[in-house]
C-alpha cells in the first residue's frame, strides 16, 4: 500500500510541478531578477545589418503566392535584404509561382530530402550576418524583421524567437485548442527568456546569427528545436520578441492536429536523446533546470504521470478504508481527476459535433495533447516517424 501511495504522490507531483509549480517558480525568479540584477541597456544606435529571409517550401502552391507577397512587404531596407526560397522535391506549381519574382533566389533539386536537409543546403547560399527562417504557410507582420534583428545588438544573443499566432478560422476544437495552448506556451516563453533563454524556438519564425548555424543530421524531425539548443550549448541565449509574429491557420481537423502533435512528440524524444549533455547542470548550469522542467518533463514523465496518477488513485480508493492516513487527500484528488476527465470527454463529444463550449476545450485539448505525446513516443521508439513527412492540412483563412 505504501508503495502505491508513493507512486500516486510522485506522479501527481511531477504533473503539478510541470504545469503549476515551474511557472510559479519562474515568475518568482524573474521578479527577483528585476529587483536584484541591473539589466544592461542595449546600444542606442540604429541597428540594421544585412539579413536573409529564408523560406523552405514543399508543394505549397496554395500558400506560396501570399507568402511571397508577405515576405516582400517586410519593412526593412531593401538593399540589405536577400530573399531565398528553397523548394526541393516540390512537384506542384510552387516553383512556377516563385519564378515570377526575380528578386527571389530560388533553390530547387528534384530529390526530396526533408526540411532539415533543405535548410542545411540553403544556408550555404546565405551571405548576411543574420538569417530569418519562417514557414511557407505563415504570414509575418510588416515590422517583424526589424523587431527580431534589434535583439542582436546584445552580443550574447545568438537567436531570437518570434511569436506564433493561430487563426481560428473554423471555430472548431482544433482552432480553439491550438490557440489556447500557444497562449500558455507564449507566457512560458516570455518568462523563460527573461530568466535566461527561450527553451526551444518554434520554426514558424526564428532569427539567428548565420555564423552560429550548425548543420543538422538529415533525419532530424524538429530542426527548429535542435537549432536553438545548439546555439544555447555554444554559450548564447535565445531571446524572445512577442511583437514579431508568424500567423497561421489551425489544423484543418482534429485528425490533422493529432498527426501534427504525434510528429512533434516523436521529434521531442529524438531531440532529448541527442541533447543529453544539456541534462548535466555542472556543464550547463544556466539552462539545465529550465530545459528539464519545461521540455524534458513534458515529453517524457508528465504524460505517463497523468496515466499512472489516475490508475494508482483509483486503486487506492478501492483498497483504502475511510479514515486511514491520506484517505481524504486520495479521495479529493480522485474526484478532481474524475471531474476533469469527464469534462475532457464531454469536450471531445462536442468537438466531434463542432459545438463551441470554450471551457470544455481546455481539459479536452490537454488530454488530447498528452495522448498524442504518448503516441509520439511509440513512433520514435519504433522508428515510424520520418523527417520527410506529409505536412498536416491547415484550415483556410476566410477572405
Automatic annotation (TrEMBL):
Q: Do you know which Pfam families this protein is assigned to?
A: Glyco_tranf_2_3
Instruction: Indicate the family of this protein.
Output: Belongs to the glycosyltransferase 2 family.
* Protein name from the UniProt record: Glycosyl transferase
| Highest taxon of source | Bacteria
Listed GO molecular functions? glycosyltransferase activity
Q: Per its UniProt record, what InterPro entries does this chain match?
A: Nucleotide-diphossugar_trans (IPR029044)
Q: Which UniProt keywords apply?
A: Glycosyltransferase, Membrane, Transferase, Transmembrane, Transmembrane helix
| Annotated source species | Chitinophaga parva
Q: What sections of the protein cross the membrane?
A: 6-30, 296-320, 326-352, 359-381
